[in-house]
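User: Please fill in residues for this 259-position structure.
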């Protein structure tokens, strides 16, 4: 009986590694996942693993949330929470209002770096890094903040290493605070919109070209290169004639590099 009282009815919208880890956690916590939504096929990451973990009889793709009849069915579930993890689609107000409350994950210290690729912009411009859980509203990453944590950028970080660390930190932040959120012990605080910074998805394309004749400090160049180095991929490039030469930066404190 005690477990039934504490159990939350959840509509889960999940993708990628954080989505999988949160799905595992919710199952371990005996939460009642009524319905699972996944990305469209061309945008799915670890979706099969998430579906297998949740083992939910109701699994739907994101595009169904545009269907009015489907949304009406969603309202009938009378769920406690919509939880969105690495969810690439904005939710309509009637979807948001179909449940009692909401939680979204964002890998930035909101209201700084709303939108796309926040870690890249932090490396380049020095803005604070962090992770945030917030309530969902009609805007992109604009809802009141449940809880957040600032994360240190290391001198050896590239876009890949900080991206991975932010994912782990975000999942841990949820695990540490979920009971307080669902029990009402934690109240979300409105964001200070006057401090907001928003980045569009296509902004990142403008960062990649290195002008060989442009003057910049060594710090600015290194930060630009490590912000665009993602594992074995180097997105930054310079041009000689029509040929592009891509650059991948590796950083280490002890001169030990993996091949």
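Assistant: Residues filled in for all 259 positions:
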């Amino acid at each position: 009986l005690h477990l039934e009282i504490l159990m939350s009815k959840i509509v889960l919208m999940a993708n990628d590694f954080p989505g999988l880890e949160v799905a595992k956690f919710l199952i371990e916590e005996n939460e009642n996942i009524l319905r699972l939504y996944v990305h469209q096929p061309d945008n799915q990451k670890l979706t099969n693993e998430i579906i297998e973990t949740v083992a939910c009889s109701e699994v739907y793709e994101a595009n169904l949330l545009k269907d009015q009849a489907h949304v009406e069915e969603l309202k009938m579930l009378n769920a406690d929470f919509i939880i969105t993890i690495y969810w690439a689609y904005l939710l309509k107000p009637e979807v948001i209002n179909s449940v009692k409350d909401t939680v979204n994950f964002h890998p930035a210290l909101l209201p700084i770096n709303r939108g796309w690729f926040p870690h890249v912009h932090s490396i380049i411009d020095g803005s604070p890094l962090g992770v945030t859980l917030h309530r969902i509203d009609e805007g992109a990453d604009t809802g009141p903040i449940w809880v957040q944590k600032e994360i240190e950028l290391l001198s050896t970080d590239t876009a890949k290493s900080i991206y991975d660390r932010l994912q782990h930190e975000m999942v841990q932040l949820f695990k540490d605070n979920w009971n307080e959120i669902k029990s009402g012990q934690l109240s979300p605080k409105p964001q200070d919109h006057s401090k907001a910074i928003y980045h569009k998805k296509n902004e990142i394309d403008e960062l990649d070209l290195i002008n060989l004749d442009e003057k910049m400090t060594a710090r600015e160049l290194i930060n630009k290169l490590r912000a665009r180095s993602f594992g074995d991929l180097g997105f930054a490039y310079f041009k000689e004639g029509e040929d592009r030469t891509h650059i991948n930066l590796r950083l280490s404190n002890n001169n030990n590099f993996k091949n």
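For context: The two ends are 55 Å apart (CA to CA).
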